[in-house]
Amino acid sequence: MILPATSNASREPRFRKRGFSLLEVIVVSTMLVIISVMAAPRFLVVTKQREEKAIAEVEDLLRMFAFRNGIGAQQIGLHYDQSRAEVSLWILDLNPKDPEGPRVWQQDRLSNVVELPEGMVVDGASSDDIEMRDEVWTITSYPDGSRPRIAVSLRGREATGVVVLDSYSNVPIRADSDEALARQPIDLDREGRSLDRW
């Protein structure tokens, strides 16, 4: 039996392996740039929304601080841990392991821990204008039931905020907003407006 002669052309694979052409690389690169330009602002908006949400949650935590201080006889503490990026509410309560012993600080079960988004930190905090400079600090109410003026400054990549809880108020305010300017006390006598109507 004689086999037919085969040519070299039939031994080569039908489809040759080839790379991308320069035109294909340019088209794909251009498409990726356009997609990233369109998507980048959305990522920045999401980051800003997360940071604004964290500032609002710290504001809610201060509101809960004032509420718990106003209705209870226990001391309340606002606690910050920089390594864990958390702000939480603590309470001086009975020790569950030793109810007859002294009271101990423990995390408040009625409030949520505020987990700060990545890149956001508590830039500064003060208790009656005394700066908290440590990486872990706690601002507490006083044993007599009164509480200090608390200011917490938060700084993120896209949003910043200063939340203030005055010692006489139950509602914290954003000190960096226009609403805070409207709430500043005014000495009408000193401004010559003592007879103005409210």
User: Do you know the CATH architecture?
Assistant: 3-Layer(bab) Sandwich
Q: How many H/I helical runs? A: 3
Question: Which sequence of SSEs, written as H and E, runs from N to C?
Answer: HHEEEEEEEEEEH
**Hey, roughly how much beta strand do the residues contain?**
15-25%
Give the overall shape, derived from the CA principal axes.
flat
Summed over residues and divided by their number, the pLDDT gives a mean of 84
Biggest β-sheet strands, sense, barrel: 5 strands, antiparallel
| Residue share in helix | 25-40%
CATH topology: minor pseudopilin epsh fold
CATH top level?
Alpha Beta
Structural class computed from helices and strand pairing: alpha+beta
**What is the radius of gyration?**
31 Å
Number of domains: 1
- Look at the structure and name the CATH superfamily: minor pseudopilin epsh domain
Distance between the termini: 118 Å
- Total strand segments: 10
The quaternary structure here is single chain
Q: Which stretches are poorly predicted, pLDDT < 50 over at least 5 residues?
A: none
Could you describe the 3D structure shown?
With 198 residues, the protein is α+β, with helices and mostly antiparallel strands. It has a single domain (23-182), classed as 3-Layer(bab) Sandwich (minor pseudopilin epsh fold). The protein has helices at 8-11, 22-71, 178-182, and strands at 76-81, 86-93, 104-107, 114-115, 121-127, 130-131, 136-140, 150-155, 160-165, 173-174. Strands 1, 2, 3, 4 and 7 form a 5-stranded antiparallel β-sheet that branches. The radius of gyration is 31 Å and the shape is flat.
